[in-house]
Amino acid sequence: MRMAHLFGRTIREAPADAEFPSHQLMVRAAMIRPLGAGIYSLLPLGYRVIRKVEQIVREEMDAIGGQEMLMPFVHPADVWRRSGRFDAIGPEMVRLKDRGDRDMVLAMTHEEVVTDLTGTEVSSYKQLPQIIYHLQSKFRDEPRARGGLIRVREFTMKDSYSLDADEAGLDESYRQHAIAYTRIFERLGLDFIRVGADVGMMGGSASDEYMAFSPHGEDIILICPNGDYAANREVAEFQADTPEREELLPMEDVETPNAPTIQALADQLEFPLSRTAKAVFYKSGTGKFIFVVIRGDLDVNETKLRNAIRESELIPATAEEIKAIGAEPGYGSPLGVKDCLIVADQSVVRSPNLVAGANRPGWHVRNVNLGRDYEAEVVADIAAATEGARCPICGTPMQARRAIEVGNIFKLGTRYTTAMGATYLDQNGKAQPVVMGSYGIGIGRSAASVVEQNYDDRGIVWPISIAPFHVSLLTIGKDDDVRAATDQLYADLQAAGIEVLYDDRGERPGVKFNDADLIGNPVRLSISRRTLDNNEVEMKLRTEPDAELVPLDGVVGHVRGFVDRLLAELAPSA
RNA sequence: CGGGGCGUGGCGCAGUCCGGUAGCGCACCGGUAUGGGGUACCGGUGGUCGGAGGUUCGAAUCCUCUCGCCCCGACCA
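Output (C-alpha cells, whole complex):
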C-alpha cells in the first residue's frame, strides 16, 4: 500500500475524549474513527488488523473441527421469546418493529438462532458432536460504551457453539475450545490468563474467561502466586481467616454519636474493622428486602450474593425501605428487624462478639453474635476478595490484577435446547435434548487489548501476527534515484510475499519516521541519499532502539527471514 | 438509569462570567527555501458557534426546551 493514497490520515493530537492508550493510538494512527457512542468505523489500516485477528481465530477454530457459517444480525423476536430471554434481558437488547409491526431484535448473541437451527438440522446422535461458529456483528446497547474498541455497542464477535449428546461430550468440546483459545491469544501476542467466571445472563453450569492483563481493564482478577488459583473477583473464593476463639459476651449498648459509617465507628471505638458487623441493604428484583450482614473489613460481592440467594437483580435499598423493616440507616443491625431476608456472610459466623448497629441513631451494640442474638436465613460466602486475600487452595496471599475480558467460554448444558425443543434421538430411539456450549471472542476488543499491552511513547508496537503490514518502507528525500530504488524495493518485497506500507509521500523525514512509529509495523526500512550511495538500506525493528544497515541486494531475503522469525516467535506453545 | 462535565472549521483549544462584524495552533491548498526525527517563511481555503424557540436594535455569549458526546457508578466479548 502506498501511503500517499491511503484512506485515513494520522493525527498528531488524540481527540480529547479518548482516554485509553489503545483508543488514542488507534484513532491517531488512522485505524478507527467514531461514528457515535460505542460505534466505530474501521479504516483500512485498522481493518487489516481486524482481518488478521479474524483469520487467526478461523484457523484455530477450524483446527478443532469448527465449521464456519453465518447467522443473521436481525432476529424475529419470536425465537428469543421461545428461550425466555426476550423478557429476561433488559434494555441492552435493541428491539424494533418491522413494517408489519412484528417485533424484531438486533442480535446480541446467537444461542437462540443456533438452537433453532439445531432443532431443524440435528435429529440423530449420529450427527453429534458438532462445533459451528461465525464471525458476526453483535449489538449490545451498553449503558456506557467507553475506551475506543475496548467496550463498544456494535462489535464483531467470533461465537461458536458446541452440540453434544451428553455432558461428557460437552466437557470434551469445552476442553477443545480451551485449547483453541489459548492458541489464539498466544498468536495474538497477548499476556493473558484463563480464570473461573460467573455464568451471568448466559446461564449454564460453568464458565471461564480469558483475561488480557491491562491497567485499564474493567475486571479485577485474583491470582495465587503459586499458580493454584485464579478467578474473577466476581466469583473469587478465598480462605477466611480464623479469629481467635472467645467466650461469647453479653450484649451491651454503646453510645456512638456521628458514626454512620463503619469506618467512623471503628475510629470512634478504637476497634478494628474486623470486629464490627456491617449491614448492607438491597431490594431484589422480585421485591424482597435483602438484609446482608458482613464483617466490617469486607465488602459484599454482589455477584456472589445474587448467586447465593438466586436473585438476578439487586438494587440498593432506599432509606425509607430500610426504615420500613425496622432498621436505621447508618446504624443498622439484624437485631429485631422484620419482613426481610437476612443473609450472613460466612465471616460473621466465625467472628464472635462483633459491634453491630442498634437500629437507632447514635447507638451501637457490642458483642453481637449470630445464632445467639439473631438468625440468618442464608449463610454463604458473599464477600469480595481483595488483594492479599488468601488462596482457597494453598492459603498464600493472592495478587489482584486488572484485566480485559477478551474471551469467554460457557457450558450451557440443555438450558436452551430444552426450552426450545432441540432434541435428537439416541441409540434407543429416545428423544434427548442436545447439550450445548457457547464460546465467544471479541475481535476488536482483542485487537485493542494487544495495543494496551504493546505501545510506547511513540505509538503502537504491533506483534507481527496482526500488524497492519510487516514492513514500513520509507523513502527519504527527493532525489529521483533514491525514489526509484525505493520503488524497486517496494516491488521486490511484495513479490517476496512481504506486506509493505510504502511511505511515498512528499513529507519530511521526521514526519515519516513519526508516522511509522505511530502505526507500529514491526520492521522499518529506509532508503536515503546516504544509504543508497553505499548500496544499503537502513533496517530497524519497532521493538529495538537501534537500526542496522543492510546491503541493498540482500535486503529482501534478510527481511523475509526477520518476518518469518517474528512469526515463529508467536507460534502457540501447544 | 443516577451523579459530574463538554458541544465554536478535520483535530486541539480561546472567546461565554460582563451581548456589539468569529479567533489561535495543527492539518489542508499555492509558493520559496529546506531535505535523516512532526522544518521555516509568505499567501490562501474552510465554521448554520450541536439544534429549536425566546429576550434584545443586536446573541457563540442571556433564558427555556431539546439532541449529541465524554467521565464516575450498576452490565459484558
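The first strand of chain A starts at residue 32 and ends at 36.
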